[in-house]
Design goal:
- It contains 15 helices and 24 strands.
- The chain is globular, with a radius of gyration of 29 Å.
- Strands 15-22-14-21-19-20 form a 6-stranded mixed β-sheet.
- Strand 17 and strand 18 form a beta hairpin.
- The chain is an alpha+beta fold and about 550 residues long.
Amino acid sequence: MNRNFWQKFSRVFSAKERMTVFSLVLLVAISLIATVLGIYYSLTKPIPVPGGEYSEGIIGQPMYINPVLAAGNEADADLTRLIYSGLFKYDSDGKIVPDLAENYEVSGDGLEYTVHLKRDIKWHDGEPFGSDDVIFTIQAIEDPAFKSPLRQNWQGVGVEQIDENTLKFILPAAYAFFPNNLTVGIIPKHVWETVAPANFSLAEYNLRPVGTGPYESVDFSKDSGGMILSYKLAANPEYFSASPYIKTITFQFYPDEDSMIEAYNNKQIFGTSSLSPDKLKDVKSQRSANIISATLPRYFAVFFNQQKNKAIADRDVRKALSQAVDRADIVGKVFEGQGREIFSPLPPGALGATDDVKKFDFNIEDAKKTLDEAGWKAGDDGFRVKSGEPLEFTLVTTDWPQLVDTANILKSEWEAIGAKVDIDFESIGDIQQNFIRPREYDALLFGQSWPMAEPDPYSFWHSSQTKDPGLNLSLYSNPDVDKILEKLRAENDEEKREELYGDFQRELTDDIPAIFLYSPNYLSVMNKKVQGVDVTSLVSSDQKFANVTEWYMKTKRVRK
């Protein structure tokens, strides 16, 4: 019957008419399918489901996947962030929220913090977590034999066990920023207690960690030379909070940005760690990529050592140098616009940051006028002198490409107003050892950051911090600022701290101990197949994973 139908159909209609009929039938079929799909999509919504395998590139090598030792190495910090949990953590907005802790109380004098732990939490090896683990971790940090870079933050802090699920921290002085300390990852006592302090950094557990975090260590691979090529994590099925959607996360390690970007372009990884702004243009298939651009609590400035150079000791010279700096131009040229110009040590967006500070906007003519009125006269060579003292100094900075470019721009701008500037580019190791520690520089182009939700400027600007290991790079001393910083540390009322932050910035910027330049953004790339990522403001680069349990790669549709 069907055969007869098609024979009759062929005799009745010409080839052109048959094609028209077929086209109409196909159009109707497509319309019906589209209608059905439209109804289906209008009545349902996608929701994330477990599954998927994410891979990310990192420059460098993991050494200590251990929160007691991990500070300063991006590879260690990222892995530690996923494997371990702290008493508290930063959420995706940079706010401190409970993690292993259920809640806490602070005594009226701010000297005691009582922390109550969540119950029934297990380590990745199945052993129960408890207050003994917290005490062991803190004591390891405080013991100089363990050589923890976090030790300075814990000096003088006592910790007592109230019961298996309750602890008390006793501070030597009120410190409003102490909850930030409690975000450090906790290590298991039952794993580490048999390791002697001298062997702590050498122990196998630094590469085969046991934590309580959302992901657990599975395995890693090495090349013939012993370099780690990849490190695989799996979702923790016993995680005490919301279980992650993504099944596995694998980190691939690369020697430089170019090789990491090549791996991304070749689809060997789904995401990258931090990137330089000038490398974004090398990322292919940007339609399928999310460019993550997030703020970080860091800034770069020129710090003046007024004790080393008489010209720089003149406030009018420092004022003129600030007037000659085009910050917006530097951010545009050096960071492709991925950053913010700043005028104080608290970048915009930081708690307590204010615009009510002494600002010297870019104006070459105003800068020249400032120097003229201060008695700095230009000679035949264009450089200025006052009472036989030349306006001349050396700017020291690292050989990091962005700082090289910044230093060259500054030199050009400052020489345009009659300042003779030499630049000394050094490796970061030489900068730390030979310049910063002994404070041997006229001017230093360098960065500072605080890995915490709220800035504590004490270590950077209090007069007690002018010598190593203090971080007061301008050797700045102002009794009024000292008092403000001391009050700020002891003040638990957030509104009063806001007022103190404002007072601090106004006093400091009026003295011009440094020229604050910019705060560059954190940049990375991630394939759009990875969804649920919430990264806009970071406390530190590893906090990109703050909401990692909400990331997903698989979905299904359910009725709305």
